[in-house]
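Amino acid chain
________________
===
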Amino acid sequence: MSERRAEHVPFRGRGFRPGHHRWVGALVFALLIALAEWGTRAGWIGQLTLPRPSDVLAALGELWQSGLFVKHMIPSLSRLVIGAAIGVSLGVSVGVLIGLFTFVRAGLVPLVAALFPIPKIALLPLFVIWFGIDEASKYALIAFGTFTPTVVATYGAVDNVDRTLIRMGQSFGLSWGSIVRKIVLPGAMPGILSGLRISLAIGIILLVAAEMLGAEYGIGAYILQAGSLYDLERLFAGVIILSVLGVTVSAGIGAAERRLLRWRS
C-alpha cells in the first residue's frame, strides 16, 4: 500500500481569530481629520465648536519647540506610572488571593463591591486632605482608581480558569503551588491583561483630574490653563496628547498579550 502524503489542514475557525489591520484604524483617523478640516474651512463647523486640525497641529508644534511639552509630559508620565504601578500590583495580588481562597473571598468581595462604584474623582478633595496637595495625593488617587477594577478583573479571570485543567493537574500529582503557577495564572492572564486596559484608561482620566488641582506642570494642568483662556487649539492639543498616550498604553498591553499569550495561537 502506498504511503499517503501528509496534507496541511487549514485552520477552519478563521472567522473567530482576531486579525491585525492597523491601516484601517489609521484610515479612520485620517478621514475624520480631513472631514473636520474641510468642515471648518468651509464654514459648516464654527470655530468656537471645533478648531481647525491644522491649527491644533501648529499648537502642538509650538508646544514642542518651546520645550513645554517635555515639562508637562514628564510629570504626567511619572504620576501615571507610579500610581498605576501601585494600584495594579496591589489589585492583581488581592484579586488572585480572592480567586484562590474562599475565606479571603468572603471577606473582601463585599468590600470591593462597595468601593468599586464610588466615583474616584469625587474623592480627590479627601485625598488632598489626607495626603496634601503635592504628589502623594495624585499617586493615591490614581492607585485607588486602578486598584478596584484590577481586583474585579483578576478574580473574575481566576474564576474562569477551566476547572478540568486543575483536576487534571491534581490527577498527575502536581502540588498546589505548581497548579497555581502552571495552570491558574497562565489561564487567568488573558482576563487580567484585558482588565488592565480598563484600569489604565481610568488611571489616565484620574491623572488629568488630579493635575487640574494644585499642579503647575502636567497635561491636566495644561488643558486647564488652555480652557480658562478659551484657547481651543491648545485645549485640543492637550486632548490629542492624552489620546496618543491612551493608544500607546493600549498598544503596550497588546504587545504584552502577544508575547505572554503565544500559547493561544
